[in-house]
Amino acid sequence: MRELDALQIEIVLHGDRGYMAALQVTSPLVEKIKLQQNEDPELMKIQKGVKEGRNKDFTLREDVLWYRNRLCVPNALNSRKELLKEAHDSTLTTYPRSTKMYDDLKTHFWRIGMKKDITNCVAQCLICHKLKIERQKPGDLL
Q1: With contact defined as beta carbons under 8 Å apart, do 110 and 118 qualify?
Q2: Residue 108 lies in a domain
Q3: For 46, which DSSP code?
Q4: Torsional class of 46: left (φ above 0), alpha (ψ -120 to 50), beta (otherwise)
Q5: pLDDT at site 11
Q6: Which domain, by its residues, includes 71?
Q7: pLDDT over 80 (residue 41)
Q8: Cβ(96)–Cβ(89) under 8 Å?
Q9: Any domain includes 95
Q10: In angstroms, rounded to a whole number, what is the distance separating the alpha carbons of residues 67 and 59?
């Protein structure tokens, strides 16, 4: 039972059966990104525009900047690298190609130049190069 409490899993009893009710996984990286938003001059300009009613695509929720329900990532090098590392090296993704990685990240995060950063990250990965599928027809008999 302690293991379930540590994972924040709740058992809901319905008659004589029990059902798992909730499991929420969060990353400390998201909280770090939220804190670093106030240190990025570009995001501060956007925040000012939101407060003045100029930037319609951006919103502020609890002093956190969002672009169309996507968390805005500051330009700080360490937060960008951590985000890419977590998305690329995760055991759930198994070395995605740049398009797949971009599609996964763009649903939750926004940053100017994010696609270029992802392309560079994948291009520098030796394992991604080894896993690349060859798109040529096999040669004929010798």
Answers
A1: no
A2: yes
A3: H
A4: alpha
A5: 63
A6: 27-131
A7: yes
A8: no
A9: yes
A10: 6
Cα–Cα distance measured from residue 11 to residue 86, given in angstroms and rounded to the nearest whole number: 30
Domain count along the chain: 1
- Asked, for residue 36, whether it belongs to a domain, the answer is yes
pLDDT, residue 16, reads 66
- Residue partners of 118: CB distance under 8 A and separation at least 6: 84, 87, 98, 101, 102, 105
pLDDT tens-place string over residues 47-102: 999 999 988 899 999 889 999 999 999 988 888 888 888 888 876 666 677 888 88
pTM above 0.70, yes or no: no
Which domain CATH number covers 82? 1.10.340.70
Give the other-Cβ count within 10 Å of 87's Cβ.
21
User: Do the domain assignments include residue 43?
Assistant: yes
Q: CB of 87 within 8 A of CB of 93?
A: yes
Token code pair at residue 128 = 């991604």
Over its C-alpha atoms, the chain yields an Rg (Å, rounded) of 21
